[in-house]
C-alpha cells in the first residue's frame, strides 16, 4: 500500500515537471525578430559555443550529406504557387499572398511537399517562410522572383526580404532567379550619397535557424544589400549559385555566413559590390570549393571584434578559387579592442588576377571616417595556411600582414605562393608586421625580414 502511494506521488511529480518544462521550451523557441536583428550587427555577446572547444586543431571536417535533402521516397504533395493566385487577377504586381499560402499548405503537409514556382515572373514584398514544417520541403524555382522596390513595403522589417526561418530538411533549387531589384536601395545608401543617413537595407535571401539545408542551382542578383545570408544554421550545402550585382552596388555581400556550423559552398560564381563570401562570428566548419569571385571585395573572414565584441571563427577552408579584379583576395580583418580568435584557416589552390590586396591580414581594420586608436585587446589570429596561391596583384604590395602589437599573428604558413604585379615594371612586395611566419617551397614576394617579431 505505501508503495502504491509513492508511485502516485511520483506520477504527479512527473506530470508537474512536464507542464513546467513545456511552456518554457516554447518561450525559448519564440525568439523575436528583434533579437535576431541585433545579432546581425555582430554585437551578439553570446558566449563562445562550447562545441567549438571540442574540435581538434588542424582538422577540417565538413559533413557531406549522404542523401539529397528533401528527396522523398514516398508520395509528395505538389504545390504550385499559381494555384493560389486569385482567378481574376488584375493585380500582377503582388504575388506575396500566393507564396504565403503555398508555403502554409506545403509546410503543413504530412507527406513531404514540393513548391513549384513556374517559369514566369513574380513580384514579392517581404515574406517569411517559417517552420518547423510537418515534413521535408523542396522549393523549385524555375521563374524569376523579383522584389518589390517600394521601400514602404519594408517598414516592418527593413533588413530582410525573403526569410526561411527554422526549417529543417529544406531544398531550394530549380535554376530560376531571385532578384532583389536593389537599385532604389543603392541610390539611397550613404555610401553612394554621402548626405544621406546610413541605414540598413534588406538582405535578399536569409536562412535563419535552418538545418539540413541545400541551396542549389539558382541565380541571386541585384540584392538590396546582402544577397544570401546563412544565420544560426547547421549542415548546409550550397552549390551552383550565380550571385551577381554591379560593382558599384554598396554592401552587397554575395554569401554571408554567421553563427553557422558545417556549411559547404561549391561551384559558385559570385561578383558583387562587396565581399564575395564573408564569414563572421560564431561560424565553424566552413568550406568553399571552386569559387569564382569578382568583381567585389574578395573572400573575407570578418570583420571580427567590432565594438569590443568577442568573436570566434574556426575551421575554414577555401580550396579552389579564381579571384579577379577585386579589392582583396583572401582577407582576415579584425578591429582593435575586440577579443576572441580566428583560427585554423586554410586558403589553397587560388588564382589571383589583378587583385589589389591578394593576401591580407589586418588586425587594425577600421572603416570609420577618423582613424581608430590602438587598443590593448585584439581578436587573435592563429594557424592560417596559404598554399599554392598564384597570380597577379594590382598593387605593389601583394602580401600584407598588419598584425597587432599586442597579439601578433601566430603560426602563419606560406607555401608555394607566387604573386607578381599586374604591371610588369613593378616588383611585388610583402609587408609584414608582428607576424610569426613560416615559409615553405617557393614564396614570392618574401617578407623583408622574418625577424619582425
Ligand atoms: C527528410 O530529409 C531527411 C534528410 O535528408 C531524410 O533523412 C528523411 O528521410 C526525409 N524524410 C522523408 C519523409 O523523406
Ligand atoms: C539547373 O536548373 C535547370 C533548370 O531546371 C536545369 O536545366 C539545369 O540542368 C540545372 N543545372 C544544374 C547544374 O543542376
Ligand atoms: C549569372 O547571372 C548573370 C546575370 O543574370 C548572367 O549574365 C550570367 O550569364 C550568369 N552566369 C552564369 C554562369 O550562369
Ligand atoms: C561541382 O562540380 C563538379 C564538376 O562539375 C562536380 O563533380 C561536383 O560534384 C560539384 N560539387 C557540388 C557540391 O555540387
Ligand atoms: C566549378 O564550378 C563551375 C560553376 O561555377 C562548374 O561549371 C565547373 O564544372 C566546376 N569545376 C569543377 C572542377 O568542379
Ligand atoms: C587592374 O586593376 C586596376 C585597379 O583596379 C585597374 O585600374 C586596371 O585597369 C586593371 N588592369 C587590368 C589589366 O585589368
UniProtKB/TrEMBL annotation:
The name this protein goes by in its record: endo-polygalacturonase
GO molecular function: polygalacturonase activity
GO biological process, one term: cell wall modification involved in abscission
TM stretches of this protein: 6-28
Taxon lineage: Eukaryota, Viridiplantae, Streptophyta, Embryophyta, Tracheophyta
Catalytic activity: (1,4-alpha-D-galacturonosyl)n+m + H2O = (1,4-alpha-D-galacturonosyl)n + (1,4-alpha-D-galacturonosyl)m
UniProt keyword terms in alphabetical order: Cell wall, Cell wall biogenesis/degradation, Glycosidase, Hydrolase, Membrane, Secreted, Signal, Transmembrane, Transmembrane helix
Cited SUPFAM superfamilies: Pectin lyase-like (SSF51126)
Family label: Belongs to the glycosyl hydrolase 28 family.
Domain of life assignment: Eukaryota
Predominant subcellular localization, coarse grouping: secreted
Keyword Heme tagged: no
Active site: 297
Protein location: Secreted, Cell wall
Enzyme class, first EC level, given as a word: hydrolase
EC number: 3.2.1.15
The species this protein was found in: Manihot esculenta
Amino acid at each position: 500500500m505505501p508503495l502504491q502511494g509513492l508511485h502516485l506521488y511520483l506520477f504527479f511529480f512527473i506530470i508537474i515537471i512536464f507542464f513546467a518544462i513545456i511552456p518554457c521550451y516554447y518561450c525559448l523557441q519564440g525568439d523575436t525578430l528583434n533579437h535576431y536583428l541585433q545579432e546581425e550587427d555582430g554585437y551578439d555577446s553570446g558566449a563562445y559555443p562550447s562545441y567549438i572547444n571540442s574540435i581538434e586543431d588542424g582538422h577540417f571536417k565538413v559533413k557531406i550529406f549522404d542523401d539529397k535533402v528533401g528527396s522523398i521516397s514516398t508520395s509528395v504533395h505538389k504545390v504550385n504557387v499559381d494555384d493560389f493566385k486569385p482567378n481574376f487577377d488584375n493585380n500582377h504586381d503582388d504575388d506575396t499572398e500566393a507564396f504565403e499560402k503555398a508555403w502554409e499548405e506545403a509546410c503543413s503537409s504530412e507527406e513531404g511537399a514540393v513548391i513549384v514556382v513556374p517559369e514566369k515572373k513574380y513580384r514579392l514584398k517581404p515574406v517569411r517562410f517559417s517552420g518547423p514544417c510537418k515534413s521535408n520541403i523542396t522549393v523549385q524555382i524555375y521563374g524569376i522572383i523579383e522584389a518589390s522596390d517600394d521601400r514602404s513595403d519594408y517598414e516592418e522589417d527593413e533588413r530582410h526580404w525573403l526569410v526561411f526561418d527554422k526549417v529543417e530538411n529544406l531544398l531550394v533549387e530549380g535554376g530560376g532567379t531571385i532578384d532583389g531589384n536593389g537599385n532604389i536601395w543603392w541610390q539611397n545608401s550613404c555610401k553612394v550619397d554621402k548626405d544621406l543617413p546610413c541605414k540598413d537595407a534588406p538582405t535578399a535571401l536569409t536562412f535563419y535557424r535552418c538545418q539540413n539545408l541545400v541551396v542549389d542551382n539558382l541565380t541571386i542578383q541585384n540584392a538590396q544589400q546582402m544577397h544570401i545570408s546563412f544565420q544560426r544554421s547547421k549542415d548546409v550545402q550550397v552549390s551552383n549559385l550565380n550571385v551577381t550585382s554591379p560593382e558599384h552596388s554598396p554592401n552587397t555581400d554575395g554569401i554571408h555566413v554567421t553563427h553557422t556550423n558545417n556549411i559547404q559552398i561549391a561551384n559558385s560564381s559570385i561578383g558583387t559590390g562587396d565581399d564575395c563570401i564573408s564569414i563572421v562570428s560564431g561560424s565553424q566548419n566552413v568550406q568553399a570549393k571552386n569559387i569564382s569571385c569578382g568583381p567585389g571585395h574578395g573572400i573575407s573572414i570578418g570583420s571580427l571584434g567590432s565594438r569590443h565584441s568577442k568573436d570566434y571563427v574556426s575551421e575554414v577552408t577555401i580550396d579552389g578559387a579564381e579571384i579577379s579584379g577585386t579589392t582583396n583576395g583572401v582577407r582576415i580583418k579584425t578591429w582593435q579592442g575586440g577579443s576572441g580568435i580566428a583560427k585554423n584557416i586554410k586558403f589553397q589552390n587560388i588564382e589571383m588576377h589583378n587583385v589589389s590586396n591578394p593576401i591580407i591580414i589586418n588586425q587594425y581594420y577600421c572603416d570609420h571616417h577618423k582613424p581608430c586608436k590602438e587598443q590593448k585587446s585584439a581578436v587573435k589570429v592563429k594557424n592560417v595556411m596559404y598554399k599554392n596561391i598564384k597570380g597577379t596583384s594590382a598593387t605593389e604590395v601583394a602580401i600584407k600582414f598588419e598584425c597587432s602589437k599586442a597579439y601578433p599573428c601566430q603560426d602563419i604558413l606560406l607555401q608555394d605562393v607566387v604573386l607578381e604585379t599586374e604591371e610588369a615594371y613593378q616588383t611585388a612586395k610583402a609587408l609584414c608586421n608582428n607576424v610569426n611566419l613560416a615559409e615553405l617551397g617557393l614564396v614570392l614576394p618574401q617578407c623583408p625580414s622574418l625577424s619582425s617579431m
